[in-house]
What we know:
By secondary structure, this protein is mostly beta strands. It is 5% helix and 53% strand.
Amino acid sequence: MTALTTALATPPAEAQTAPRLSIPQGSLEEALLALGRQANLHILYPSNLTEGKQVAALSGTMSVKTALDHLLAGSGLAYSIAPDGSVTIFARPDNAAATLEPVVVTASRTTDQDQGFVPSGTSTGMKNDASLLEIPQSVSVVTQEELKQRGVTNFNDAVSYSPGIRAVDYPGGQGMPRLYMRGFRSQSQRAYYRDGLRNGFNPYDSDIEPYALEEFNILKGPSSTLYGDAMPGGLVDTRTKRPTAEPLHEVQLQYGSYNRKQVGFDLAGPANEDDTVLYRFTGLYRNSDTQINYSPDDSIYLAPSVTFKPDDDTSLTILTSYSKVTKGGSEQSLPIANSLYSSGTKIPDDFFIGAPGVSEWEAESASFGYEFKQAFARNWEFQQNLRYTYTDLDYTSAFDANNAAVNADDTISVMLQKRPRVSNSVMLDNNVTTDFKTGPIDHDVLAGLNYGYYRIQETRANSSINNISIINPDYDVSYTFAGPQSNDLDTINQIGLYGQDQLGFDSWLLTLGGRYDWVETKTNDYYSKTIYAGLVDGKHVTQRDGEFSGRIGLSYLFDNGITPYVSYGTSFEPAVGTTAGGTQFEPTTGQQYEVGLKYEPAGWNGFFSAALFDLTQQNVTTSDPDNPGYSIQTGEIQSQGLELEAKTQLWDGWNLAASYTYTDARVTKDNANTSGYSKVGTQADSVPYHMASAWLNYDFEGDLRGFSAGSGVRYVGSSYTVMSSTTGEQTEIPGYTLLDASVSYDLGELGPQFTGTSVQLSGTNLLDKEYYTPGFYSNSVFAGKRRTVLATLTYRW
């Protein structure tokens, strides 16, 4: 007898909660091995029974019995399930092949209706169907169910209960959220991905709309092996809503704080009788003010998509979107002395540092893309993801011309800058996957080619300066703009080749991955143009970088669901600029050592993880001691920490999400500046040592059936910011604790006439805590997000 074992099943197989399965096309033996691993089963059978037998791919949320029925259909084999949960496979007495009518199984990752609170897997960490246990790196997943329970309406709230990531609360802010991961700040959208492709290259080109998304995947640590240039702290990959095989119809109305009014719709389902064409159309309209005066949060979003699936081996999903978002253009960096410490006249936290009707951020964007999958014989699958995005940005920023300082007469000197731009980007990722055996070793192999292109045309023009009172602001002033101070055309071309092999032997998993990237950055400066022989030419600067990145990880999957792992990974980020001698900067590099423990208990819906990491970024620019005013790449930053996370269903109806993060990020190498100050030993700006959170939700039964209530606490410890860029002196920004809550009711419990209707009341920072976070510049902070309450009415049919 041969035993295929991945975990001991505590309850009988037929009594388990239906697992999520992803079993590729291939041999029956490999399919049974995958089933045993994913469903926590002992599967026993004579080794000769499976020889030469093949099965089709099977993916979805289903019982073990259903999975066995379909894997063994037509094979002449039967099975029995023992009281201890083990499965025995044997030949039918008459050796007759059983047949079943075709059954459509809805895949667990095709519709947000199927997702639960506790995640089971993600493609972000491996670019395949690996479970969370099999990824030798820390990954947090925020499912659609959790987003709904908490009433999430923005990116910051979506990730606020996950460890290792901190999105800075920035009311009225424009562009992509500002975030830190494992002590490092995201630059140039290197931490933002959508559907496995980089979202873009410039943080001001787009925004994130949570209603458009069904999942957030947070991959922590260096990720260049699969994704190319990326910040060392990690990345966030969001998954957009896409067509479903099950009909879905939703209309949603929302009203709340700051006169927020929003209507959304989400329609999906089969478009023909045989379910080979599926559709989805998601959209919303929002008209809203924000905490900051004269800073709107208006949005139009439309996303039609369609899936063509002519057979089980072929799938093409076309994803399109249009968005127009309008927000305030003020940078809102408040002087510390007049906000946090109030040693001078305090600035109200709704004060607008800008020009109403002039300074604003309006981004109009359209994208077209697709996800194509084609399976071949012998477990080969090809996948191609592509997205083209066009953005027209009308942006006039506003800021304190005195670099975060209030004048003696309690005014702020406001300057504007016109920054219109047009950008185009193309993202393409091709990869093939297969699995096979070499002796006793299983291989899951991935190989791919990635391409990225970005083109941006931007001009900048500064305005005159006006002094605006922080007590009685009078915005009835005019600004005059000088001619453009810059006119640039930038292009970026990136190509990356990558490969990965996950080798399995017994319960051991060894992950090996490598990648090489070529990056070309061109800058055309048309502001400094010269005219010669009738030709207009400008200053052209081209920078070419090439870099190798890699990852190696070793995991051991114990039968009880515990998986310890160790890993080493690297990352890189291109650095634009030159030394005093004109030598172009090399990319900064990141190296991380991580040791962790993951636990997915058998028979209990939960996932727990712990990770210790040591992450270093090198080639950081620092002052050139021999050439004041220039930089050299001898700086270094080291971040060490601990991350703990739990996602679990405690009892029927009870869901818990909890996390803790400790991060010690310090400058380890630095040259003194012209004032003789060195940062060596100082805590990295804006990175708190401690963060913790816990969210508990309960779905009521009995007389209160239909009610769901949840509450959460978020703690962010103190951090530091620079008081003076000259001396480097730091000051502490106090930590804060925020209380969130949500309650909802299914009105269908009142009678059939209300079936499909639900209401929800959700709020963040319910105690209206006043807090601040480090700002853009030295001596500045952002006012934190004050109490926000939203009421949502949803109708589904």
